[in-house]
Amino acid sequence: MPLRNFSIAESWEIQEAYKRHNSTGAADRSSEPLFEVVDTEERGKTCVATDNIPRGTRFHVEKPLFSVDDVGETRWSLENKIQLEQAASLPRNRGFHDLINPFPFRQSAGKANKARFEANNFQMTEPDARGKSRQGIFLEAARFNHSCLPNAWFNWNPHLGQNPRGRLTVHAIKDITIGEEILINYQAKNAYKARN
What we know:
The structure is a single chain. The protein has helices at 8-21, 78-89, 112-120; strands at 35-40, 44-49, 58-62, 66-69, 121-123, 134-137, 145-146, 152-157, 167-172, 183-184. By secondary structure, the chain is α+β, with helices and mostly antiparallel strands. The longest helix has 14 residues, at 8-21.
């Protein structure tokens, strides 16, 4: 049976249902290797399913390599820059430097880590009372490519894991077959609101 492509509205509707479900009743196969990172000529590194992944399955759980305070839409503060440079310089975080820097020719060496972080980070927490949240680097999740009509959805789950508490989880929002590229939507939900 051919897979059905979901519209953007349907895709977000499915994602909202999973948020309400809070990942507690979904099939959890995150301890199994259900995808691999491969090099492609067209899209660079990407994730491809190595087994069939049924809709609703949580197939990936990952703790952050490191995180920094959310920089939002404004300029990076000196504190944000220091946090990033300290984290990026630690030997245990060397995998960060293997992630894509989308603008390698338009930057000085000092801006490369900032560009790499901005291109590969995930929102980790909802804003607190001060409006602050965290963004983190997840080496495996950073390899999922974008689609406006994704077959998977990611979410920060604050109830999983220890030291630090919380994990990024990825769920199938439609059936994913062996060999199929796993795609997530990088955009915030409000990116699709109609303009007046």
